[in-house]
Amino acid sequence: MLLAYRFRLLLLTIPVALVLTLTACSPHPGAGNWQADAENAMKISRINVVFEGTADFYTPGREDSIRRCFWAAIGERSLQFQCVQSDNIDIKETYQFFVSPTGKAELKQNEQLIGVFNKIPYQADNEKQSSSKQKMEQK
Fold first, then answer.
1. What's this model's pTM, rounded to 2 decimal places?
2. To 5 degrees, how large is the angle CA 37–CA 79–CA 111?
3. What is the count of structural domains for the chain?
4. Are the C-beta atoms of residues 46 and 118 closer than 8 Å to each other?
5. Which of 71, 115, 64 lies closest to 86, judged by CA?
6. 97 lies in a domain?
7. What does each of the 139 residues of the chain score in pLDDT, given as a tens digit?
8. How many Cβ atoms sit within 10 Å of the Cβ of residue 49?
């Protein structure tokens, strides 16, 4: 009888714990779409950081990413990217991404600044993608 009671109690606490865990989880400030503030040495124009732990670096005029990355939070407002080059997956690189409270982010490698990025609002990014699709359909 006691064993059955404990089992029922366990079954009830698991969903409650799961709900509390999921509701406490919020996206990292670095998650989202970022656009370069100015041209940089790597010519990265855009970085997409997905909440699920992946990121892609893009350059102008190229639809596929130049870097494919996994990311992990290394601070409240900072991420670390573990990346491979899209053209050569044997080349592995590490980057850091520091997000300021003002909505700008710095991409660094070995403490050297690569570029400054601005967060693109989600809606604006969707409009940009749909206008790109419309242009492609017109061709």
1. 0.70
2. 70
3. 1
4. no
5. 64
6. yes
7. 555 545 454 445 554 443 333 444 567 899 999 999 999 999 999 999 998 899 999 999 999 999 999 999 999 999 999 999 999 999 999 999 999 999 899 999 999 999 999 999 865 444 444 444 454 455 4
8. 26
C-alpha to C-alpha distances, 43 to 22, 31, 33, 90, 139, nearest whole angstrom: 37, 21, 16, 21, 27
Name the residue range of residue 52's domain.
32-120
Alpha-carbon torsion, ordered 102, 97, 120, 70, to 10 deg: -150
In a domain, 53, yes or no: yes
Angle CA 116–121–126, to nearest 5: 120
With respect to residue 2, please indicate whether it lies within any of the assigned structural domains. no
User: Is 138 a member of any domain?
Assistant: no
For residue 46, the domain's CATH number is 2.40.128
The residue behind tokens 């998650």 is 31
Residue spans of alpha helices (H) in the chain:
2-24, 122-138
